Each structure stands twice: as C-alpha cells, then as structure tokens.
C-alpha cells in the first residue's frame, strides 16, 4: 500500500486553549519526524519504533534555550489518525511554553494546520468517509449521552454502511437494465425492464424514507429540543427551572463571543435533551419583580419546539396569562398549573375548551409535587421522537438530510417517468442521479468547496 503522504506537514495545539496539566502539540505529514527531531533533544525520533512515547526536551536550535521537558509520541503511517506520520508532543501545559513549542515547529518546517485539517486528511487519505468525519464533530459537540451514542454509532460507519447498501441496490438495477438492453430477443423486454425498475425504485425509496423518518429525532438528539419556559412574573419559572437543572446536572455552554443572553443550557428529562431558551432572562431577575414582558416571551416562544406555559393555580387568570395562552396557540405546549400547594383560585373552564386535559399538568415547584408527572409528560410527547434502542442509525446532519431528500425526489422522478411510459434510458438518468446524490453523503462523490466548508467547522487541532 502507498503510505507516503501527498500533503505537507502540519502542526497545531490539539488541546483546548488555556492552562492545563498537559497540552498536546500535534504534527502530521511526511516530514513530521524530521521536523520534530530538529527541536527535540533525546532519542532520535526517526529511529525509534512506531507507537512509542519518548522522553526528552524541546530545545530552540538557534540559541540552545531549553523550552520545555516533554514526552513525544511517535506514530508512523498508516496506523494513525490521519494515516500519515504523526508526532504528538506532550508539554507541561503552560500557555507560553506550549505556544513556543508550536512556534519552533512552524519555523522549522511545519505549517499551521487549518481547523479540522487532521480529520480532513483522515478523510482524504481514505481512513474515514464523510459521515464519519461529521460524526467526529458531533462527538466533540455532543450534549447528552444519547447524542454521543448516536455519534459513536455513526463513527463506526453504520450510516455509511446503510447508504452503501442502498447504492449497491441501485447499481444492480442499472446493471440489469443494461443486460436487458443487450438481449432484446425476449419479446416483453420493455415491460420486464420497467417492472423491475419500478420495484427497485420503490424498495430504495422506502429505505430512504425510513432514514429520513429518523431525521427529526436525530435533530432533537443533536441540538436538543428547543424549550421555552414562559409565564407572568412570580408564577414560578425560576423555581421550576432550578428544579430541573438541579435534578439533571444541566450542561451550560457559553457561546463564545456573545453576551450572557445566549447562554445555552441543556437538561435531560428522561433522556429527552431540552435546550432551554432564554434562561438568562428567567434567572437574572430571581427574587426581584420581573420586568420580562410578554414581548420578550414572544421571541422565545417563536424559537421553541416546546413551550412550558406556567399559570398560577392560586390566583385568578390575568390578561397577561390570556395573552400568553394566545401567543402559544399552535405550539406544542404544556400548561403547567403551579403552586397547587396553595388554595385554588384559578378558573380554567374557558381554557379547557381549547387545551386537551392531558396537556394540563398541576405541580408545585415548591414541594416538587407533580414534577415527576411533568417529566413523564414531556417524555411521552417525544416518545415517538426518541428511539431508545442503541443500535438505531439516525440521520441528524442537515447536509445528509438535504441529500437524502434530493435522492428521494430523484426516485419520485423515476416512478413518474415509468408511469408516463418514458423511454428507459431517460429513467436511467434519474436513477443514476439518485445514486450520485447518495454518494455525496458518504463522500464517494464530493466537491472541494464542500470539504472546505465542512471541515472549517471543526476546532483547531482536530
Ligand atoms: P418567576 O418570577 O416566574 O421566575 O417565579 P419564581 O420561581 O421566582 O417564584 C416566585 C415566588 O413564588 C418565589 O417566592 C417562589 O418561592 C414562589 N413559588 C414558586 N413555586 C411555588 C409553588 O409551587 N408554591 C408556592 N407556595 N410558592 C412557589
Ligand atoms: Zn424568575
């Protein structure tokens, strides 16, 4: 096998920025070993065995200055992440020293890697396909255990495997058409061919639609179900939020370079990952009289897949309650009657005409009564959406979903063409188009811009 790389040697810090116990500077490419050797004092890295860890020092060859004491891992192609020679230098983790090591590599033969370039090389060198590369990114970003399992499943190549099978079926059908055309001595060859094509197209369409049916749950798992907790001031939003957060150890992500308004919080409710919207608005006003009007809630409601609308069970319905009820009409919502530990003052007779009984959930955020039932209700709402079997292959990626939809359309064209008695060679074109589109999913057919766009979403050093 050809193990030499056609690419230059790249370097980057592969651990997150900031101070840590160790940091890793990673080199990949055909000159990885000689470049590392130029600044490494210890054993000759070009002579050590592959997949070994070597103790030594990083020394600036220009002035003899010792920069850091390090461990250098040497991994020779092809059994590496990129399928190229890789050297990973474990430094002591200080920002200055780690950057200094990187600078030395850059001034002695390496080039700074672009974001995702290591994974891109793994793809270009044939170690992984596109769906697997995308799942590397999903793994990094996974917000819940379940999302992580889906990514691991995809990294294993399960989706690719499925797509490859479907493509093979299409190829078989196309080959069969050729055979039929080459042996036209049979009388009813035309009828036979279109019957066969129709059956194949239907079968393949069915499989693609099954995959597409998983897209919604895939999206929920990947991004979380956008959930807005709304209600007038003092109704108990913060209390419920804190209860949910406390209960499930939410993950808080600070979206880089933005204000605290868009802090994203995730909470798992019975394996349904909720991405809570506008929690900053709920939290910053704790204990004080809230000034969050209906207007602000409206924005959150718009973005939400699920609205949790709180009403105070111990007070009569107000205009503001009514406004929120109106604003959430047509949304998937649960009406939460809070403060059921207090005497009932709320009259819901009007509301009950439009809101189904099972969507009204009485709770007390103070005593945690009913919160279990609320969680169960949320889980039920999306039970159809979240499949718990570990083996399911889900598509969750917008690019993959887009291509599957186009492939599905191409098959509709095939079926319509057959229905209209179009010549078989025209139908073949649509069938081939479908095959091409599926190939783009796994990257067997791809365009350079796509790769650039895709891998640029990775973090540096991956
Ligand atoms: P928010 O303004 O909607 O976020 O409401 P908060 O969660 O800040 O709650 C307002 C007040 O109501 C606080 O004093 C809470 O302790 C109280 N509270 C919240 N939930 C309940 C409940 O179920 N029962 C009772 N009795 N008080 C509650
Ligand atoms: Zn609040």
TrEMBL record:
CDD domains: trmE (cd04164), TrmE_N (cd14858). Keywords: Cytoplasm, GTP-binding, Hydrolase, Magnesium, Metal-binding, Nucleotide-binding, Potassium, tRNA processing. Its cofactor is K(+). It comes from Loigolactobacillus rennini DSM 20253. Homodimer. Heterotetramer of two MnmE and two MnmG subunits. GO terms for molecular function: GTP binding; GTPase activity; identical protein binding; metal ion binding. Belongs to the TRAFAC class TrmE-Era-EngA-EngB-Septin-like GTPase superfamily. TrmE GTPase family. (6S)-5-formyl-5,6,7,8-tetrahydrofolate binds at residues 26, 88, 127, 462. Its EC number is 3.6.-.-. This is tRNA modification GTPase MnmE. The lineage of its organism: Bacteria, Bacillati, Bacillota, Bacilli, Lactobacillales. GTP binds at residues 234-239, 253-259, 278-281. The gene is mnmE. GO terms for cellular component: cytosol. Mg(2+) binds at residues 238, 259. K(+) binds at residues 234, 253, 255, 258.
């Amino acid at each position: 096998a050809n193990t030499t790389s056609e690419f230059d040697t790249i370097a980057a810090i592969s651990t997150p920025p900031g101070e840590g116990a160790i940091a890793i500077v990673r080199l990949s490419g055909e000159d990885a070993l000689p470049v590392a050797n130029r600044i490494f004092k210890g054993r000759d890295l070009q002579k050590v065995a592959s997949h070994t860890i070597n103790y030594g020092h990083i020394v600036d060859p220009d002035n003899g200055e010792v920069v850091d004491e390090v461990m250098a891992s040497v991994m020779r192609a092809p059994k590496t992440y990129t399928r190229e020679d890789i050297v990973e230098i474990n430094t002591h983790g200080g920002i200055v020293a780690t950057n200094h090591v990187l600078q030395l590599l850059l001034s002695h033969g390496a080039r700074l890697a672009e974001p995702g370039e290591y994974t891109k090389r793994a793809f270009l060198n044939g170690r992984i396909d596109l769906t697997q590369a995308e799942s590397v990114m999903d793994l990094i970003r996974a917000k819940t255990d379940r999302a992580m399992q889906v990514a691991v499943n995809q990294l294993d190549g399960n989706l690719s495997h499925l797509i490859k099978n479907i493509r093979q079926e299409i190829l078989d059908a196309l080959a069969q058409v050729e055979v039929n055309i080459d042996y036209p001595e049979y009388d009813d060859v035309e009828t036979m061919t279109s019957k066969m094509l129709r059956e194949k197209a239907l079968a393949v369409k069915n499989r693609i639609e099954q995959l597409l049916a998983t897209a919604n749950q895939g999206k929920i798992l990947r991004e979380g179900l956008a959930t807005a907790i709304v209600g007038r001031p003092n109704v108990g939003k913060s209390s419920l939020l804190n209860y949910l957060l406390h209960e499930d150890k939410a993950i808080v992500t600070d979206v880089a370079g933005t204000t605290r308004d868009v802090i994203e919080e995730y909470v798992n409710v019975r394996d349904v990952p909720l991405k809570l919207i506008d929690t900053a608005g709920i939290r910053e006003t704790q204990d004080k009289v809230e000034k969050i009007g209906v207007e602000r809630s409206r924005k959150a409601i718009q973005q939400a897949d699920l609205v949790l609308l709180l009403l105070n069970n111990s007070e009569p319905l107000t205009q503001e309650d009514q406004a929120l009820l109106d604003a959430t009409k047509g949304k998937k919502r649960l009406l939460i009657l809070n403060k059921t530990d207090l005497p009932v003052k709320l009259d819901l007779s009007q509301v009950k005409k439009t809101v189904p009984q099972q969507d009204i959930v009485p709770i007390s955020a103070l005593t945690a009564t009913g919160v279990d039932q609320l969680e169960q209700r949320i889980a039920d709402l999306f039970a159809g959406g979240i499949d718990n079997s570990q083996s399911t292959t889900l598509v969750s990626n917008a690019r993959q979903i887009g291509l599957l939809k186009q492939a599905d359309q191409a098959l509709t064209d095939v079926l319509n063409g057959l229905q209209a008695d179009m010549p078989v060679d025209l139908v073949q074109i649509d069938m081939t188009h479908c095959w091409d589109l599926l190939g783009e999913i796994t990257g067997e057919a791809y365009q350079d811009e796509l790769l650039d766009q895709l891998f640029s979403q990775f973090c540096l050093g991956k």
